[in-house]
Write a structure and sequence with these properties.
The protein is mainly α. It is built from two helices and three strands, in the order βββαα. A hairpin with a 6-residue loop joins strand 2 (23-25) and strand 3.
């Protein structure tokens, strides 16, 4: 794509001069060229400037791009296949995990019910034990009273 050379330290790759108004940058290697050094007509340069999607490559870069584009297309296809496989695996894993989560929730509800039942039984035993202890205290007190009465009668 044609560009204006705005950095003062850029030099033309052909003539090594930094002066000039019309420049082209190689898209791959980034070297700059004067349009005149490339023997490009003003009309061709203007067309290159007007086309935003036009890219300019030197012969060396053009050969590299010719090999890169098919490789990129192959990479895109491999990425698409890999993405589909990954999404499918993740969906399957999520479904499996959701099933496990449902089972764990069910187990928690069951254990919670068992704990509540156990707690109720323990509360009942505690109440019964407290009543029995109270009854024993009353009986012990009554026995104590009887013994004291018998001792005092003697």
């Amino acid at each position: 794509m044609p560009k204006q050379c705005v950095e003062s330290n850029e030099q033309c790759a052909l003539c090594s001069k930094a002066t000039g108004d019309s420049w082209l940058a190689r898209e791959i290697c980034g070297e700059w060229y004067h349009v005149k050094c490339l023997q490009l007509s003003d009309e061709a340069y203007k067309v290159l400037q007007d086309l935003d999607t036009c890219h300019w490559f030197c012969k060396t870069c053009n050969d590299k791009v010719g090999k890169i584009i098919p490789s990129l297309a192959g990479l895109q296809e491999r990425m698409t296949v890999t993405e589909k496989k990954t999404v499918t695996k993740m969906e399957n894993d999520m479904e499996k995990n959701n099933g496990q989560i449902i089972k764990v929730k069910s187990d928690i509800v069951k254990i919670s019910g068992n704990l509540n039942t156990f707690k109720s039984k323990m509360d009942k035993h505690l109440q019964d034990s407290a009543k029995n202890l109270h009854d024993l205290k009353v009986m012990a007190h009554e026995c104590n009273q009887k013994i004291m009465n018998q001792i005092s009668k003697k």
